[in-house]
Protein: Enoyl-[acyl-carrier protein] reductase II
Amino acid sequence: MNKITQLFNIKYPIIQGGMIWNSGYKLASAVSNSGGLGLIGAGSMYPEVLREHIQKCKKATDKPFGVNIPMLYPNLEEIINIVVEEGVKIVFTSAGNPKTWTSFLKEKGITVVHVVSSSLFALKAQEAGVDAIVAEGFEAGGHNGRDETTTLTLIPMVKEKIQIPIIAAGGIATGRGMLATMILGADGVQVGSRFAASIESSAHNNFKETIVRVKEGGTQLTLKELAPVRLVKNKFYQDVQNLYENCPSKEELIQLLGRARAKKGMFEGDLDEGELEIGQIAGLIHEILPVEQIIEQMMTEFDVAAKEKAKFEF
Structure:
């Protein structure tokens, strides 16, 4: 049995990314009902909104699901307590030190996974006692590692260093991509951009339509001085690049960024002034589909690719 399907008690080793403004209970429950592991993205939710989404998710699926918690969250302790109170059994943590909450969560019987962008941080997460790690290459959308290590090189380097299961992320939207990362040493995959462009995603339809229009080279990693983030090259992105021409201070970048840019773009559908976070793989996403169909297509393509691989003879 696959390590990831066994760890989470799911049918397929496909994890949905806990993406802010995309990952409400409708997306999480649809992924879980289709055989993967759905995640509610706590990063864009006030504590009581998260509680509501957890409760609705429990009604929408009898399958396992989890919550993704960015550890930079200002109400972190309150969020953690809500997750425990509501009986969530799986937590993915990111953007912070895994030592802070891992032992507390595990004492409560919760399976803990931490997202990393390097083998160094993967080792630290393993030392902190997590059950698995997500190794995310810089192809991924949204906030990202500073080193620009690609998924192709990151997965085998992490595999060389750690013993716990590895979930590959960054640039995976197809069954072939899934097979490739598993050949490199991953036990499963985390998929973000492909699920952002699903019927059940909570993102604004303007953003979903933008995802399917993005071509190769249509995104860029920027704002490294604050927190590296991969964005669609829209007006806001161009405003950032124009500011860079004047060698801006960190304060000037913060002022331009302002507040709620991601909400404005992905949730409210402002395609000019909003922050549109999506991965490089968007160039391979051509239509908005139901989650069930996305997973079926991935698994069919995975099986076909695996059979083709078996034919290679040298």
Summary: The chain has two domains: 3-203+282-299, 216-280.
